[in-house]
Write a structure and sequence with these properties.
This protein has 13 helices and eight strands. By secondary structure, the protein is mostly helical. It folds into three domains: about 10-50, no CATH class; about 60-165, no CATH class; about 190-350, hpI Integrase, Chain A (Orthogonal Bundle). β2 and β3 form a beta hairpin. α7 packs antiparallel against α9 (about 255-265). The radius of gyration is 25 Å and the shape is flat. The relative contact order is 0.07.
Amino acid sequence: MTRICLDYVHEYRDRHGKLRRYFRRRGFKRIPLPGMPGSPEFMEAYQAVLSSETVPRSQIGGKRTVPGTVNALVVAYLDSSPASTSPFKALAAETRRTRRNILESFRKEHGDKRIFYTAAGGQRVTLLTREHVQAIVNKKAVTPFGQRNFLNTLRAMFQWAMAEGRVPDDPTLGVKRVKAKTTGYKTWSEDHISRFEAAHPIGSKARLAFALLLYTGQRRGDVVKMGRQHVHNGTLTIDQGKTEGEEAHLEIPVHSKLQEIIDATPTVGVKTFLVTHFGKPYSAAGFSNWFRGLCDEAGCPDVSAHGLRKTTARRLAELGCSAHEIAAITGHATLSEVQRYTKAADRKRLAQSAMRKLIEGGS
């Protein structure tokens, strides 16, 4: 029987003296729970509302918002209904979590500022301009990935607001990210790989996590969902969380080394290969933090879980795989990122060929 979190289940007596129960969780609406605790109908209802994705979230601070402010717009966007047409709720769970945090931070800093005011005659005049948004984005130039995510999040919200007629103008149009020289997450070298493998032997949960990342080329959010039920006849089938459309569905042949490590590792998870100390599947963030510690233990403090995804692409490119072949493994929705690896690999092969010709020519 599923253990009930009593912090979420509350009892009260109605005006007729009948004992009733409801699900109460901070930030969410109260949901009635039928039957007695432990009964099939109670547990079915409890499980249905336990997931934060299915419980309708109440508009935190919604009653205190002033129309026309950043605060009001963020609240309306995050709670946009119905879910079937809400651009925010249509996003993958991990993307929603990231964007919600970005918007809540933006709201905390600029919530009381007005986006527009209504002039005489009913005309709405924009107060939040492109220059204002550009200045906010520029402050994030030291973290280019945070800057990109921030701007993409704001653009999505204002595009929705324009379509809904909530704002007179989109202040993100024309706003550009400040270009910063960065390669993003560091790609693991073969030396990094050797150090990690030496520190975490086959049979350990750490080595299994490492192998799932390296030999599938998937993101942390997809790796934590993988289980034996996804492997059939030597093929790993997975639907990526962040990618949409046909590209999200991948069928990846299981590498012989990965299969060896899976077979050698005792797993206690029913649905996933990797589980926490409490026997529960990892969240993407929890897995990332845990794996960060494993890298430090192996003497690899400068690399991370996501860097192994890039390493898989690098290895494939160095073996002569095309951008399309690499994308069939990694699931990249666009080829621009993958082509960077193939171009680098091509330059390396051409340099080796040129030097070989130089040596053979006696020069």
